[in-house]
């Protein structure tokens, strides 16, 4: 089963170019760790000074996989570069840097049964 996550954070205007430069070439080890932790289809979108992140989780224990990511030394080095570019929008509930968003609606893929879309 796929779980979808959306989140927001503010991009510090003076760090915009640095953040974009970093994300133009995300480290392979960071990407590998995300995949190993059952993260799929991770995207970050930018509007003015807001970053919207979206990913799909395909594992069975999101909290444990998030802890694995947080414990990874290469990811920690990556965050040491990217975190100063960001400003949290909320008090860090449960230690969360990005502000979680509630899913309001989702258009599911069509399924095909006996040649008919349902």
Automatic annotation (TrEMBL):
For this protein, the record's InterPro entries field holds: Dimeric_a/b-barrel, Rham/fucose_mutarotase
Q: Which residues form the signal peptide?
A: none
Coiled-coil stretches noted in the UniProt entry, renumbered to this chain: none
Looking up Pfam families in the UniProt record yields: rhaM
UniProt-listed SUPFAM superfamilies:
Dimeric alpha+beta barrel
> Which protein is depicted?
L-rhamnose mutarotase
């Amino acid at each position: 089963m796929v779980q979808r996550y959306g989140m927001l954070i503010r991009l510090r205007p003076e760090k915009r170019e640095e953040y974009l430069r970093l994300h133009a070439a995300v480290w392979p080890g960071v990407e590998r760790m995300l995949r190993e932790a059952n993260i799929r289809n991770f995207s970050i979108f930018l509007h003015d000074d807001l970053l919207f992140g979206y990913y799909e989780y395909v594992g069975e224990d999101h909290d444990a996989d998030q802890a694995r990511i947080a414990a990874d030394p290469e990811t920690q080095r990556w965050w040491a570069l990217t975190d100063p570019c960001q400003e949290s929008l909320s008090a860090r509930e449960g230690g969360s840097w990005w502000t979680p968003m509630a899913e309001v609606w989702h258009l599911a893929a069509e399924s095909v049964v006996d040649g008919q879309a349902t």
